[in-house]
Amino acid sequence: MFLTSTGFSRLTSDNCIFRKDTGNGIPMIIGVYVDDLILIAKDPDDIRRLKEDLEGPFKIKDLGEIKFVLGINVTRDRARRTISLSQKAYAEQILDDFGMSNSKPVSTPAISGLFLQNDRHDTDAKLGGFPYREAVGALTYLTGCSDPIYQQQYPRWPVSVNAQRRSTLRH
């Protein structure tokens, strides 16, 4: 692989993240998703050199400073030296996709005391044609797969989908 041949090593904790020691005590980091790269380095010259190295074997397009990736808005405030991540637009898109953009907020997303069970006999007819599998997938990505803090705090757990969950999505 090209990145490892140029001195980057793949993290054991995440196969899509590569790091390389730069000599200044702060490593250069590359995040890879399919054919997109996120380049992070303290020294802009390190990024420039890497881009030049990539232009040899690959056709690349520099999209500039990161603004949006995988449903996450990235805002950088150089004066305050902060980077903020937001999934608001992605969450709003999920609500819109499932016809719930006018839903009212509630403090608990499910009926208190609701007992969920694994019902292997659920059918689309019983679910009223609502695309529960797609909704659960989108919500799982939003709350678990794309939130690194959430990923570290909670282990992966199976989600059972049945007709009782309908009230969870209607609020």
Annotation keywords:
single chain, four-stranded antiparallel β-sheet, 171 residues, alpha+beta, 18% strand, disordered C terminus, three-stranded antiparallel β-sheet
SSE order and pairing:
Blueprint: H1 2-5, E1 9-10, E2 17-20, E3 28-33, E4 36-40, H2 44-55, E5 68-69, E6 72-77, E7 82-86, H3 88-97, H4 132-145, H5 148-153, H6 166-170
Antiparallel strand pairs: 1-2, 2-3, 3-4, 5-6, 6-7
User: What distance lies between the first and last C-alpha atoms, to the nearest angstrom?
Assistant: 48 Å
Helix content, binned percent: 25-40%
Shape estimate: elongated
For the biggest β-sheet, the strand order reads 1-2-3-4
- Mean pLDDT across all residues, rounded? 78
Q: What does the largest sheet look like? A: 4 strands, antiparallel
Backbone CA Rg: 21 Å
Q: Please state roughly what percent of the residues sit in beta strands, choosing from under 5%, 5-15%, 15-25%, 25-35%, 35-45% or over 45%.
A: 15-25%
Number of helices: 6
Task: List low-pLDDT spans.
Answer: 149-171
Can you count the beta strands? 7
Helix/strand order? HEEEEHEEEHHHH
Structural class: alpha+beta
Task: Describe the structure concisely.
The protein has helices at residues 2-5, 44-55, 88-97, 132-145, 148-153, 166-170, and strands at 9-10, 17-20, 28-33, 36-40, 68-69, 72-77, 82-86. With 171 residues, it is an alpha+beta fold. The protein is elongated.
